[in-house]
Amino acid sequence: MARLRAKLQKRKSIEPVAGYDALLADVVSAIEDARRAAARSVNAVMTATYWLVGQRIVEREQEGAARARYGEALLERLSADLARRFGRGFSVRNLRQMRAFYMAWPNRQTLSADSEAVNPGKVVARIRQTLSAGSGPSTTFSLPWSHYVRLLQVQNPLARRFYEAEALRGGWSIRQLDRQISSQFYERTALSRNKVAMLTKGTRARPEDRVTPEEEIKDPYVLEFLDLKDEYSESDLEEALIRHLETFLLELGGDFTFVGRQRRLRVGDAWYLVDLLFYHRRLRCLIVIDLKLGKFTHADAGQIHLYLNYAREHWAMPGENPPVGLILCAEKDAAVAHYALENLPNKVVTAQYRTTLPAEAELAAEMERTEKILRERRRLLMEGRRRSRRPRR
Question: Which domains are assigned to the chain?
Fold first, then answer.
């Protein structure tokens, strides 16, 4: 009798309950969200603490007489004492990173959500408040500590700020940030079609700023992650891009979203295939990508013009802007691209792709030429202002 009762009880416990699956999914989601929030909170507090440790070290070093020798002895002693009290994580190397972290961001912690400077005293208060209240300082530190350690390896302050802002905007993982720094994303973006505009453009967007396809589409794209051999077909290229879609999206830019590949369309009695279809959030339009192994020709312009006309009529949603075409080719002639694409009713942009990283010397020389252009523009601008201020006779 007891066994029968146990069996009935067990059977009753596994009978389906109305709405149970939804309840389980809701509870699991709440727990996972809480765990993620806790991890972010702990990471933010630790990053703030490391900034404060770096601040204390720098302030103490500045009081030392023989600063270099004093500073190294200070770090070694501090490392030994902290290791005895807190265990791992406070080696001399790590303390140097904390010191460098504070020195790289001396007047503010990091790029926060509102990008405003933070008073060190308020930082301490906010950390203490966080620890007592249990709420994460979501706007205090926007990137994990590992990101800042990687950013410290970027020597150029402008490049460091650029990577910090892009990592924040794009939600980059540490692996993505490392790939962008290693592939010289800052230099390549600065040397894109509108390099002068990019270098002079402020970090904050203004209402009057209009986003253009030329600004959002880089040239060239570096696809070294595809690991393609010397000989490959267009289908091999497309397969590799889809296989490495996450990294390809990172190379394209944070506002690109993948829609589909080999999208079929029928015009008259003929069928055509669009290689890749993306959507750009800021441009608010579809991006039709046509892959070309060889050199760009005027015939390529006619083909993608057909794709864009069809996409505008059949694929675009109400309220979206007209689709933009991107011809991604291995080689192009600027003059041919200019005369083939100028004054078309559809917007078409060409960009080269490279399967190997450009040489650092090549990028450095191009950056130097760009900076000369900027200096000359500033000189002419200042000269024009001085002339306008001179009293007329």
Answer: 35-142 (no CATH), 213-359 (3.40.1350.10)
